[in-house]
Design brief:
The complex is a heterotrimer. By secondary structure, chain B is an all-alpha fold. Chain B is built from ten helices and no strands. Chain B has one domain. The longest helix of chain B has 34 residues. The termini of chain B are far apart. Chain C is an all-alpha fold. Chain C folds into two domains: 52 residues; 122 residues. The chains are: A mainly alpha, B mainly alpha, C mainly alpha. At the B-C interface, α2, α3, α4 and α6 of B face α2, α3 and α5 of C.
């Protein structure tokens, strides 16, 4: 890895904090929805959904990238996913308090579902962009970019659909 | 004999010096924040500044109706700004860090609070206009427009200060994601601030209003009002008809 | 949920955080406690950062990133590596802190001497009131007091020059 990338990469300890937030963040979001819906399901479903979908689709990304001939080493892919998860956790950590306040201070349950979906969506989008950048460094071909885009859209779509279905069940 | 001693120059408290720096030389203030010098003391000064200035602005707004509304608005406006800052300020670091910005939470918090204090100081500079509006009996809606304009100018000034600081920092350390960070902060600030100010209304009250509550009864949130309007626009109504005033 | 409940919940979380930090950090002023209860999302990170000295390592990070950017230049042969730079930055900070610590000790002793002189002057003023003829001898005492106070002013100037140099160094490195 180049010295600039090394100097600019997030330090290991802040990545660990980000990963901890990534583990707790979806639980917190699930708790906000659970409190509104007066049901325990979202508390467990939210983290399961997010991590389950990512774990299920991540190997497909590596295989598809390898098929384009543009696959980075597996260690780099693992590191990139770690950074992306940390980014997801950190973004969610900053959005939980506003989401909790907006959900708690509204009468309609729609507001709760909209703000929690928005928080997860924004954090997820930032994580995907970060993952893309980490995998692309220093450069990436057109084929690999296309593969990543399709994978990201599919993963986001699957996770999003599961989340919406959960909310519709509760609403 | 004692007179042989030179009269010492006026000893300005450190906090007033910080506020003076904020007003007259924000570049030095931002350099101090970047260097991480004495940020705890800076943050305390900014919190105190926001609390006092927004109390003054609130009292001025409340004076339009007068009476107990002066006290109510003086208490509520600092709560709105400080509450919004507490909930929204960490979003700058959180979203920025996720987007790849090399940010430090304490520096970012100090920056946001300094920018808000600057905006609050600009607002307090505009209180004579609010009092003038009362003095020349501006109508309620004209007062609302003037107040919104003042808050808009103060808010934009605070935002420009944040953008300058974050952009310069990003140029120096070569990291990216500052635009995403600022956008994230703006969205979170506007939504939380909008909701909190909606929940704690009213501030500017018509002079003829006989009784004013500290806060209005919770009819819904700002977003409930917006979603209700969207539903109504789609033809989905929650009630048969809007209430009509009783005929005399 | 009503606004009252939200407010109580928010302040409750702040009170818990204030209690935990008081137990962990042990050193907490009344204003810290008030800020923790009222503005814990802002003040808790500040208190934790103060404890870990996060604010002081900004210059160190800027130095490291500047060095990383310079690695591809011809100067990279003569520049220190990341680890050496980290050690140098830490030593510079230690030296500055050491200087400030010794200045603080000197302040204390100078201030003690000034207080003693003032006490002597007060006593002298009482004596002059009773016996005006000894007024002239008080002049020397006043001159001593003035020179001590001027010496303190020099110490203040020296301290702020140390702090300014540290700021300048940080700004230059960042440029």
């Amino acid at each position: 890895m180049s010295s600039e990338a090394q100097a600019l990469a997030p330090p290991v300890e802040s990545r660990a904090i980000g990963m901890a937030f990534a583990a707790l963040g979806p639980i917190a979001i699930g708790a906000i929805v659970a409190a509104r819906a007066e049901a325990i399901t979202p508390l467990l479903s939210a983290p399961a959904m997010l991590f389950g979908v990512t774990a299920a689709t991540a190997p497909a990304l590596y295989i598809a990238l390898a098929a384009t001939g543009d696959a980075p080493p597996i260690s780099k892919v693992v590191r990139a996913f770690g950074i992306a998860f940390a980014a997801f956790g950190v973004a969610l950590a900053g959005l939980i308090l506003p989401a909790a306040f907006l959900a708690a201070s509204s009468i309609s349950p729609t507001t709760t579902y909209v703000v929690t979906t928005a928080a997860l969506g924004v954090a997820g989008m930032l994580a995907l962009l970060r993952l893309s950048r980490e995998l692309a460094y220093p450069e990436r071909g057109l084929g690999a970019s296309l593969v990543f885009f399709v994978w990201a859209a599919s993963t986001a779509g699957i996770a999003g659909r599961l989340w919406i279905d959960l909310l519709q069940e509760l609403y | 004999m004692i007179g042989a001693l030179e009269t010492p120059s006026v000893n300005v408290p450190r906090s007033l010096g910080t506020i003076d720096l904020l007003l007259r030389d924000r570049e030095v203030m931002l350099a101090r924040i970047r260097a991480g010098t004495n940020l705890a003391s800076l943050l305390k000064t900014m919190v105190t500044t926001i609390a006092l200035t927004m109390a003054i602005v609130g009292a001025a707004l409340g004076s339009y109706r007068g009476g107990v509304q002066i006290g109510y608005a003086a208490v509520k406006l600092p709560l709105v700004l400080l509450g919004t800052a507490a909930l929204a300020a960490p979003a700058l670091t959180a979203v920025g860090r996720a987007a790849g910005r090399r940010s430090r939470l304490v520096q970012d918090l100090a920056l946001v609070m300094s920018a808000l204090a600057f905006g609050a100081l600009l607002l307090v500079a505009g209180t004579p206009l609010i009092l003038l509006g009362r003095a020349i009996d501006l109508s309620y809606h004209q007062m609302i427009l003037m107040t919104v304009s003042m808050f808009g100018i103060a808010g934009l000034s605070a935002l420009v200060m944040i953008i300058n600081a974050v952009a310069v920092e990003s140029m120096r350390d070569g990291s990216r994601g500052w635009r995403t960070a600022v956008l994230g902060l703006c969205i979170v600030f506007v939504t939380v601030g909008g909701q909190l100010s909606w929940a704690l209304r009213p501030y500017l009250v018509r002079p003829r209003t006989p009784d004013v509550p500290f806060v209005r009864a919770k009819e819904g949130s700002l977003f409930d009002a917006i979603t209700g309007a969207v539903q109504s626009a789609r033809g989905i109504y929650e009630r048969e008809e809007a209430p009509v005033p009783e005929s005399r | 949920m009503s606004l009252d409940l939200i407010g109580i919940g928010y302040l409750g979380v702040g009170a818990v955080i204030a209690l935990v930090l008081a137990l962990v950090l042990r050193k907490q002023s009344a204003s810290d406690t008030l800020l923790l209860v009222a503005l814990w999302p802002l003040w808790a990170p500040m208190m934790l950062a103060q404890r870990h000295g996060q604010g002081q390592s900004c210059g160190e990070r800027e130095l490291l990133s500047a060095l990383a950017r310079a690695q591809s230049s011809p100067l990279s042969q003569v520049l220190p590596d990341a680890e050496t730079a980290r050690v140098l930055a830490a030593r510079l900070r230690e030296r500055t802190l050491g200087q400030l610590r010794s200045l603080r000790v000197r302040y204390r002793s100078e201030l003690d001497e000034v207080h003693e002189l003032i006490a002597q002057l007060v006593t002298q003023a009482e004596l002059v009131r009773l016996q005006p003829s000894i007024a002239q001898s008080s002049g020397e005492l006043v001159r001593e007091l003035v020179s001590r106070v001027e010496g303190l002013e020099d110490l203040f100037t020296y301290q702020s020059s140390i702090e300014d140099n540290e700021l300048e160094l940080t700004a230059d490195l960042a440029r």
